[in-house]
């Protein structure tokens, strides 16, 4: 658990290094190897003094089992994602500006080119609004449930599209581990930024053709991947 | 008073670190605990050599009681805000680009999502123009009075909306102390930037629903807050 | 002259620090106190290894009187500005992105607010195109002459509007010394950026009223200035 | 070959320093002086730990002759460019945001001013789409062939326009050596950014006149160049 605490702490600091987070506007969690515990950033703690010992350990119901601080207020969203999406080992939430603005615009993020296709196999969905009742009764858990609903209804594979825009809120991303989940947060932000610039250059810009998306995504993922050293 | 001078000096330097200020384009002041004195940045001094000893202490009428340098030219605006807004312990003025541009556009800043709602309980107002007479006779004091008028006329709570856009000029923000006032300056800039990107993605973007604004604001503020460690 | 060489060298490096210049895309020169010589950056030299000894000294006709390197290719433009604009002690040229883009758009830069008004007393002009003949025969000198013509025809005071956009090329700025000329280059870039954001927020944005421009400009300049410590 | 490995490694790191690359989104290669070998970045390796020893050496058919790691997945594109474009000593590929977005918008990049004209003698072309067959059969080699086709069909000189936008993908640039190829990648990104800002200021912005393009390009290139120290 100490190793995982360090990983989660480092991943939170990486968000700052990547320029995805200011103040205390982000959080990372990770699932223990046995799938029984979650390590998450404490709520509202300054990044400048953050250390592994401050990380909070909870079980999957959200009960704190280790740590002196209160867990991130978004904990229940993270837990719903671990429950709903098999294979997810880490979850990231930020308010990075372009992805957040796209969520505020209530629009999916189309795949305009290979930069997006290398990491997300198709458009990144924007959820529906949460209802007043969903917000009032169990806001954080319902945020996770609405994310899961979005993927289920649209028949999307969360491991092939490892991120989402929560309507009027901002991005969540995930991956098999902290490193991948944080990278996906960065890629989501960068592709949102490039998407805006693309449509500013050409309001009629079209998504990339399916065969190019296939080529780039499967060059890096799956059995026939030939990118990287593995 | 020496502690407060250091706080005010540090807060001014924080504006540079946050990228909110270039050259000498910003100032921070704070109110002493007894409410009788204000500590403020000197006028037109380079941030690179700024030190606590240079901070200027005045009474609430603006008379310098300590310090060798002339106080910030915006002193009288700050003083009006302390007089008008109970609970304000520090005031910040910057020319940060997005907030300033929004002020130049003469438009309120709507709340498009939770990033804004976490810290500002609703749209951030843009003041009316100062009249020629107001500018010619007592420009800085009248700037403060027009800010106060804006909150009074619109029945806004300055502690729930801790910032304003002064028409054709730029942002002022405030808080219970220097740290909060500076954070609000950063959040005002960041939400202005996100608001622009939001409407660039979707010119028809709508403000967040009231129930989401309520949820996020009161998750962090007031008796039922559950964000952070307090 | 050694002092002036150091000043000119430092000013060139400041352009990099301010983010106004990449690669070798800028140059600063200064006039000697007796008005007989100009110290200017050498042409195409890397900023990373730039030192005061490399600065080139010329007379006002452009003849090199000291230095082993070729002077900046824009030397003759600088010389025309010293000849035409009394009181100018230093000249700066950059390709900073927003000011350059405004020059490429062939549009004056209106004064949308106090940030601009604090340093430039009104709209910053964009010159006419140079003709083919002007470009072919004496490009750099004619660039200077067209800048001077712009100020003369529009009856602008170059010390009150210490910068210009050269059509399809980019910004030049100036001041009584290197420090001021470089600051004006930064302010020109920042106001160009803010002007774009302003019109993106509101395509109908209007310039600031004359009385606000008067107030801010004369708060910092002239006999009745009360900004800063002098 | 050890010298060239160091040059290629340094050039890859320069992409990060210039802000043109995040994660592993770029690659640089160089041709050996005898024209028989290519040194290229390994695939998917972190920039933070990159060292000259990791660089991969291949012959012009793409067979690895030195190095333990797999070469960049874009190797075959680089090789096609060395085969097609005489005089090219180094090739760079990035996903820099503005150039990539322009490629996603499927539009050439016009020359709006002297910043562009100083380094690229006219509009930077955007290729046609690769067909499904071209993507499926030999994607990377065909990318190089389509770039070559673009220059051949439009009768463009690749040494005068040392860069291209690959439709829906991103920019490639080149030069006589690594330093020039990397500089051209930076200039391509910066001119793409300035082009967007130019048209945001003025949607009707026109390209620079041919005589200004001639002046600036030939001031820095060819027999009559007078920029720099050579």
UniProtKB/TrEMBL annotation, chains A, B, C, D:
What Pfam family is a match for this entry?
Aldolase_II
Q: What is its EC number?
A: 5.1.3.4
Q: Name one GO molecular function term.
A: aldehyde-lyase activity
Q: Does the keyword Isomerase apply?
A: yes
| Group of enzyme by EC | isomerase
Q: Which reaction does it catalyse?
A: L-ribulose 5-phosphate = D-xylulose 5-phosphate
Pathway listed? Carbohydrate degradation; L-arabinose degradation via L-ribulose; D-xylulose 5-phosphate from L-arabinose (bacterial route): step 3/3
Cofactor(s) named in the record:
Zn(2+)
Keywords, ordered alphabetically: Arabinose catabolism, Carbohydrate metabolism, Isomerase, Metal-binding, Zinc
Return one Gene Ontology term, BP aspect. arabinose catabolic process
From which domain of life does this come? Bacteria
GO CC term (a single one):
cytosol
Residues of the Class II aldolase/adducin N-terminal domain: 6-196
Which SMART domains does the UniProt record give? Answer: Aldolase_II
- Function of the molecule: Involved in the degradation of L-arabinose. Catalyzes the interconversion of L-ribulose 5-phosphate (LRu5P) and D-xylulose 5-phosphate (D-Xu5P) via a retroaldol/aldol mechanism (carbon-carbon bond cleavage analogous to a class II aldolase reaction).
By what name is this protein known? Answer: L-ribulose-5-phosphate 4-epimerase
Natural source organism: Flintibacter hominis
């Amino acid at each position: 658990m100490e190793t995982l605490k360090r990983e989660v702490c480092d991943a939170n600091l990486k968000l700052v290094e990547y320029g995805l987070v200011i103040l205390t506007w982000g959080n990372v969690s990770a699932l223990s190897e046995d799938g029984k515990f979650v390590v998450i950033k404490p709520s509202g703690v300054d990044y400048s003094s953050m250390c592994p010992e401050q990380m909070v350990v909870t079980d999957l119901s959200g009960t704190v089992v280790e740590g002196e601080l209160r867990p991130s207020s978004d904990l229940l969203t993270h837990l719903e994602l671990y429950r709903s999406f098999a294979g997810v080992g880490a979850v990231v939430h930020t308010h990075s500006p372009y992805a957040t603005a796209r969520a505020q615009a209530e629009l999916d993020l189309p795949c305009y080119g290979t930069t997006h296709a290398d990491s997300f196999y198709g458009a990144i969905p924007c959820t529906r609004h949460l209802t007043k009742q969903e917000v009032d009764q169990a806001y954080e858990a319902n945020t996770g449930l609405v994310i899961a609903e979005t993927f289920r209804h649209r028949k999307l594979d969360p491991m092939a599209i490892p991120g989402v825009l929560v309507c009027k809120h901002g991005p969540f991303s995930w991956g098999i581990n902290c490193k991948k989940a944080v990278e996906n947060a960065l890629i989501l932000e960068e592709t949102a930024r490039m998407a805006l610039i693309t449509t500013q250059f050409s309001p009629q810009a079209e998504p990339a053709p399916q065969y190019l998306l296939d080529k780039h995504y499967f060059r890096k993922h799956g059995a026939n991947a030939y990118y990287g050293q593995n």
